[in-house]
Write a structure and sequence with these properties.
Shape of chain A: globular
Oligomer: heterodimer
Helix content of chain A: under 10%
Structural class of chain A: mainly beta
Largest interface: A-B, 26 and 25 residues
Order of helices and strands of chain B: EEEEEEEEEEE
Strand content of chain A: over 45%
Radius of gyration of chain A: 13 Å
Chain lengths: 112, 116
């Protein structure tokens, strides 16, 4: 059973538009939620973390969490070519707070 | 800005040989982790380490793997007898000890291990 699911993409978005990335998770006792950005051949870079229902904004990024629907999303406003990367959704569980469970990632491509 | 560092960036070894991957976590962090990513696959948790002992490990982290904090700054992952399927990127991560908010883990640049 997949624990964190993401559409693999690629998701193609024009420069300056809003990119919307989605993720669902299967375990209702998931505690915290993260979005990491990973450029090809590089390590995951933390973009956002969220653990309460609702929206959390940081610059051009907004994370949205809906625990009832087991759904977390990331919005990227004013998309730039440098945002082209794979975005990894990740969760931790109450039973295992030190272990991050990653999704397979969504490839995002920003076209000029 | 403080960051996690890892050495070497690329390690090539023969099957059956032992390798040690090294990491220097962020200086005020107390939780340390190892993850791996096989080419084209998900990032997978291997082990977490706190207060000089393993706090959690995955099924992947079997007897051929061990971790150690040999001094006040380094955190190592040893693979005793490497197999072809151990070829992957190995990421070290660290986090502060926090409660009541997400425990954010910060990743190093990784070591690419190639087993021939």
């Amino acid at each position: 059973q997949k624990e964190v699911e993401q559409n693999s993409g690629p998701l193609s978005v024009p420069e300056g538009a809003i990119a919307s990335l989605n993720c669902t998770y299967s375990d209702r006792v998931s505690q915290s939620f993260f979005w990491y950005r990973q450029y090809s051949g590089k390590s995951p870079e933390l973009i956002m973390s969220i653990y309460s229902n609702g929206d959390k904004e940081d610059g051009r990024f907004t994370a949205q969490l809906n625990k009832a629907s087991q759904y977390v999303s990331l919005l990227i406003r004013d998309s730039q070519p440098s945002d082209s990367a794979t975005y990894l959704c990740a969760v931790t569980l109450y039973s295992s707070a030190s272990k991050i469970i990653f999704g397979s990632g969504t490839r995002l491509s920003i076209r000029p | 800005e403080p960051e996690v560092t890892q050495t070497p960036s690329h390690q090539v070894t023969q099957m059956g040989q032992e390798v040690i991957l090294r990491c220097v976590p962020i200086s005020n962090h107390l939780y340390f982790y190892w993850y791996r990513q096989i080419l084209g696959q998900k990032v997978e948790f291997l082990v977490s380490f706190y207060n000089n002992e393993i706090s959690e490990k995955s099924e992947i982290f079997d007897d051929q793997f061990s971790v150690e904090r040999p001094d006040g700054s380094n955190f190592t992952l040893k693979i005793r007898s490497t197999k072809l399927e151990d070829s992957a990127m190995y990421f070290c991560a660290s986090s502060e000890v926090t409660s009541g908010s997400p425990v954010e883990q910060f990743f190093g640049p990784g070591t690419r291990l190639t087993v021939l």
